[in-house]
Amino acid sequence: MAVSNIKAVFSCEPEKVWGIVTSLTNYAWRSDISKIEVQESGKEFTEYTKDGYATHFKITVFEPYERYEFDMENENIKGHWAGVFSYSNGQTTIDFAENVTAKKFFMKPFVKSYLKKQQVSYLTDLKKKVGM
Question: Which residue of 33, 64, 89, 119 shows the fewest CB atoms closer than 10 Å?
Answer without folding.
Answer: 89
